[in-house]
Amino acid sequence: MARKPLIAGNWKMNLNHLEAIALVQKIAFSLPAKYFDKVDVTVIPPFTDIRSVQTLVEGDKLLLTYGAQDVSAHDSGAYTGEISGFMLAKLGCTFVVVGHSERRTLHCEDNDTVLAKTKAALKNGITPIVCIGEGLDVREAGEHVSYNVEQLRGSLAGLSAEDIAKVVIAYEPVWAIGTGRVASAADAQEVCAAIRATLGDLASPDVASGVRVLYGGSVNAKNVGEIVGQTDVDGALVGGASLKADEFATLSAIAAGGPLP
Ligand SMILES: O=C[C@H](O)COP(=O)(O)O
């Protein structure tokens, strides 16, 4: 099954709402409509920027989408500081990142939490981008494939095939995030192929062939072409390079197959 590439820019805790407007305007200016037939492009700003991005995207009828970096597992109630899937849906979010390694590590999120958040996203019609990835110790021990398969199984445990068909998976080796140390294209393909095979076990080969599997970790305009050229890599979750309009637009255009903007 042909899968349309997805380039998702995770801004992490960067840019206020005014800076967000400026960045989205620049990206949109650099990526005319013709690119969006061949690539989906989404920006993932901090919560405080989402309403401004929504106003811009809807007002100017931009073709890029936007999402959030996290979602509560709960619908509403006494959960100070949390943001629900219902709230994000009302803001027009298409995607939400779930289980990013920074949340798993810094906020002690385990697979059960990631699963609950994935369900909360799906319940509200938002596509979860479910992140998995091994640390350097696991990679050096040569256990990265089994580690990622286990993390994926835990993060999707009990979901129906119908729900699995609606998720995006992002493979992000922790040692490659923000380090400039990108996995080789072969490394990315090895794990993304194992992810797809596992999705086949959890749902069906047909479902697995339609799910987009992204790579993340020091992706930029120079390396994105080789990475998304791999059979089982359907795009990228981009951190640092997504904060630079020119570079993000260029790598999105490369994922679309060109030409360069
Ligand atoms: O969500 C994005 C990833 O953590 C990758 O970040 P990076 O591109 O800055 O390495």
From TrEMBL:
GO terms for molecular function: triose-phosphate isomerase activity. Pfam families: TIM. It is found in: Cytoplasm. The active site is at residues 100, 172. It comes from the Bacteria. Pathway: Carbohydrate biosynthesis; gluconeogenesis; Carbohydrate degradation; glycolysis; D-glyceraldehyde 3-phosphate from glycerone phosphate: step 1/1. Involved in the gluconeogenesis. Catalyzes stereospecifically the conversion of dihydroxyacetone phosphate (DHAP) to D-glyceraldehyde-3-phosphate (G3P). The keyword Cytoplasm applies. Its EC number is 5.3.1.1. Substrate binds at residues 10-12, 178, 218, 239-240. Belongs to the triosephosphate isomerase family. This is Triosephosphate isomerase. SUPFAM superfamilies: Triosephosphate isomerase (TIM). It catalyses: D-glyceraldehyde 3-phosphate = dihydroxyacetone phosphate. Homodimer. It is an enzyme of class 5 (isomerase). Keywords: Cytoplasm, Gluconeogenesis, Glycolysis, Isomerase. Gene3D superfamilies: Aldolase class I. HAMAP family: TIM_B.
